[in-house]
Structure formats: structure tokens, C-alpha cells
Prior knowledge:
six-stranded mixed β-sheet; CATH 2.40.50.140; rod-shaped; alpha+beta; single chain; 1 helix
Amino acid sequence: MKKIMKILPCLLLGILFFTGCSSAPKEDENAPQWFTLENITFDTEERKITGNSTEIYEGEMEVYLPDDIDASSLQEGQTLKVYGGPGMTMSLPPQLMHVSKIKIVSE
């Protein structure tokens, strides 16, 4: 019985360590993320980008740009990085919410 009482605290500490302390911190799923959109089309009237997403979500995606983002250099066929989220609509195609930055990757 004395042996069990000596071993039990070590076992409990080992279990606590391996279940809670050793796991790497997970990325915050509610944080904004960069999405890549290829072969975009841009509707200047609605300020809507449509393109094929290749990261995180794969498939067609729409992005409505807020007024404070400069879209003057956007052209059809470009590849963009779009910083947005959290959140995407469940519509088809899905729409990325809360976009705050865009970067042109290729012309």
C-alpha cells in the first residue's frame, strides 16, 4: 500500500503534464486569417471580388471590400491575398466577412 501511495502522485502529475501542458497552443479559430484568391474578377459598382480560394477554404469565394480599402489597382485575373474573418457566410459561393487588408500577389 505504501508503494502505491508513493507512485500515485507521480502518475497523476504525469497524466496532467501529458494531457494539458504538452499540447501546443492551437491557432485561434476566431482570429482573422489570410486567404489566397486566384483569377479574380472585380465588380467596381458593388466592390465585390470573386475568385478561387486555394488556402483554408478551397473553391469559389466572394469578398465585399469595405470603403476604406483602396481597390484602384485591382484587375481581372490577378491573384490576391485577402485578410479577413472570422466568419464566412454559408451561402454558395461563401462570402468572407470582416475584410481589412488585401495584397496583390501577381498581375
